[in-house]
Structures are given as structure tokens and as C-alpha cells.
Amino acid sequence: MHTNYKGFAITLIFLLGLASLACSSRKEGTCERDSHCDGLTVCFEKKCLSMKEVKAIRTQREEDAKPKICKDNDGDGVKAGNGCKKGAPIDCDDKNDKMAPGKVEICDDFDNNCDGLVNEGLAKCSQALFTGKTGGKQGEYKLNSPHSVIVDDDGSLLVTDSHHLWRVSKDGQVQLVAGSHLPNFADGQGEAVRFSHPHGIIKDRNGDVLLADCKNNCVRRVTREGHVSHVAGMCSSKTKDTGQFADGGKDQARFYCPTDLALDVDGSIVVLDQGNARIRRIGLDGQVSTIAGVGPVHVEDGEGQMGYLDGPANEARFNDPQSVLVDSKGIIYVSESFNCRIRRIDPKKGEHGEVSTLAGESDTLLGVGGHKDGRGAKAKFNFPHGMAFDAKGNLLVVDTGNAVIRRVTPRGRVSTVVGRPDKPKAKEGSWKDVQFGMPIDVAPGPDGSLYVLDAGVNRLRKIVP
């Protein structure tokens, strides 16, 4: 029997061509499964959409399926509900007659005029600029587990939260600089960037933002154009890469949850390496060294945590350090949460530098502090966190456990600036009445106002003098 192999081959090629044509017949932008999309989108109803777009569609459908209602439940003359006419004034809280479009804003804990802001433009009153709820001037964005805030040169604010770096204008407009709702590590730009619990931020001499990426165990740079890159440490949140310590070059050095940064007088970067309980330095040549601290605490049975010791910097001990500052003379200040103290490091004193206590006193074995103004060891803190310099060179310290902002002079005199230690519950209001839930960081504004991150209620708050 004679077989026409040539004819068979031609037929097979023709059939494969038809199959290929059929496989590629999908219209551009359509899909049948996730693998047809670009990796940043998913296949939803034969279209490649972002998860944000999919969520918006499902939310709108759920809203459309609800019974239509339009009522004035609080009797303030403005109705609310999904059945109200499009374009009509909508009450933002129909259970509170102090809130409705058209009302005059007064100094209290409510968004009286329903514009998405609280106490905007009122003197001697606190305001919420960025919150954990969408809407208003912040649009679709919301704050989640905030960590750090600084005031930029143009008066806007840079804020880190769970996995983002945000920019907030003076009037509450919010812009995403970099990051995503997904934690991980990735350099790049915008939403393609991945952070994992970014904490402290500073500006360097070039105007770039330097960021301590805690759970990724490294320090990163964000340029003015928004590009994110590695500065020092091995950026990874994998368990096998966590808990390491090493000095050396930027790629050889290892950090363990860095939580804050400060710029030294020579332009080098001082790093608060929280997990390693050390203060580190990234030199201008990229070399990482240790300034002070001997490592994490150890626990002795029947005694408690052994993590407090003043003296030569290469022998000193820290316990849960949180924030770091450097003054114009190169003196380094450290807030210590568990030891409830503000420590002072003079790198030029002695052979290795000297660590001392500027203010605060506590039971360092059990981590028991308190609230008391005074000087040096007579003052008491309760888990202090973020710090910033005021216009006179004093330290502003967020006393998280006491829910207040304290002032510490260079000589160690401590006073309470704002907040109510007897009422640790967030509440907007006048300077004397404002209350915090769990304040975590502070930044002074050029007009004398204070910007406070309140992690207890996911708010960036502005306290106007």
C-alpha cells in the first residue's frame, strides 16, 4: 500500500494553522481565563480587569439589589438612602442631627457639613485629614495601620501605613506615591511597588525619600519621580531571611525590622534596627556599621528582661527602640518603648561613643512606666514611640501608652503638650480637649500646628494652635 506522506504533512500543517487561527481569534482585551491577562489583572466576565475594578462592579451590583430608601431619620431636614434622587443633597450620617450638607462646621468630633473633613479651617481645633474610611477628598483611598509622617518642603505630608507611601496635601487631597494593598517586596514605580510594613521616612540631601521597610528588613529609596530602589540590607520578608544581623557593604549588611531613619550631619543615614536592638549607620560609601547596642534582650528566669544599660556604646543595651533623631551637633536620640525612656548617644565621647538616659524612669525588667512630667529620671513615659524636633530644637515625643504628645528639652525636662492621659479615646475638638486613641508618630508644621498619626483609629490628625 502506498502512503502519500507529503500530502498528509500538508494536510496536517493546514489543520494546525486553522487551530492556531481559532486560538488567536479572541478579540483584544477579552479573555477566557486568568492566564490570558497580563498578571496584574484577572479574567472577569471575559474581560481583563484589576481586582479593584472587579470589587467595584460587585459592590455596585450589591447596592443596586438593595431596596430603595430615602428618609430623614434624624430630623435635620436632609434625607439619606440609595433611593434618593441623583444630585440631591445626601445626609452623611442620618442618625446624627449635627451632621448634614449645608451645616456650619464647629469645633467638635463630627463632620458637620458632610464634606469628608472634620473641623477644617477652624483655629485651635483638631482636624482629621486622612482616615480609614473612603470618601470626601481622600476618594477611594483609606489609611490602614499608619506608622510614620513627615512634612515635605511644599507643606504636603508623606505618610506610611501597612504597605503604602502616601502624599496628603494640606487640605486633605490624597495621592498614592508607591505601594499596594498586597505585602511583599518589589522595586519599581507606583502600584507595582511592594512594601511590607514600611515605617520611618526621611528626606535626604537630594530630595529623595528614604524609607525603613520593616518586614522586608531593608532600607529603600523613593526618588522625586516615584521610582523605588534598594539602599541597604537584603530585602526579603521570608522567614529564613528574617532575624539576621551583619555589618558590611550594602548588599552584605543585614537588618532585622528597621523602624526609623535619621540623617546625620555628614549626610550618612542613621538606622534604628529595632529587631536587633541596635543603632546602625549607612555611610556615604554604602558601608553599614553599628553605632550602639549589643543585640536583643535576654530573659532570666525569675528576673525578667535584661535589656537596659547605659555606658560605652559598644556595651549599651536597648529594649524595643522605636524612633531616632540626630541634632545639628550629631547627638543621637532614641525613644525606647519597653524601657519607657529617651536615650542619648554621643558618638564622639570616649573611644566608642557614650549612651546615657536623657529622660524617663521605669521598671526595665517588667516594662512598667507611667505618666509624670519633670526632669530626667523624675519624668515617666508609657511606651514612647515617634519623635520629631520642634522649631526650638526640643524633642516632641509620642507617648503612645499615655495617648499624649510630650516635649523634652535638650536638658531632659519633660512636659505634656496635648492629649488626655486619663482618656485614651480618640476625639476631635479644641487643643485643650483633643484626645488620642493610640498615637504613633508626630510631625510639626511650619505654622506651629502638629500632625499626629493615630493608629488607634487610622487617622492623620492636624492639631491647629
Give short descriptive properties of this protein:
single chain, 465 residues, mainly beta, five-stranded antiparallel beta sheet
Low-confidence region ranges: 13-23
Number of strands: 31
**In DSSP terms, counting alpha (H) and pi (I) runs of 4 or more, how many helices?**
2
State the secondary-structure class.
mainly beta
Terminus-to-terminus distance: 102 Å
Average pLDDT for all residues: 91
Over all CA atoms, what is the radius of gyration? 27 Å
Q: What is the helical fraction, as a range of percent?
A: under 10%
What strand line-up does the widest sheet have?
8-12-11-10-9
Oligomer: single chain
- Proportion of beta-strand residues: 25-35%
Shape: globular
Largest sheet, in brief, is: 5 strands, antiparallel
What's the structural blueprint in terms of helices and strands?
Blueprint: H1 5-23, E1 42-44, E2 47-49, H2 51-65, E3 126-130, E4 148-151, E5 157-160, E6 164-168, E7 174-179, E8 188-189, E9 198-203, E10 209-213, E11 218-222, E12 227-232, E13 258-263, E14 269-273, E15 278-282, E16 288-292, E17 298-300, E18 304-306, E19 311-312, E20 321-326, E21 332-336, E22 341-346, E23 354-359, E24 374-375, E25 384-389, E26 395-399, E27 404-408, E28 413-419, E29 439-444, E30 450-454, E31 459-463
Write a brief caption for the model:
With 465 residues, this protein is mainly beta. It has helices spanning 5-23, 51-65; strands spanning 42-44, 47-49, 126-130, 148-151, 157-160, 164-168, 174-179, 188-189, 198-203, 209-213, 218-222, 227-232, 258-263, 269-273, 278-282, 288-292, 298-300, 304-306, 311-312, 321-326, 332-336, 341-346, 354-359, 374-375, 384-389, 395-399, 404-408, 413-419, 439-444, 450-454, 459-463.
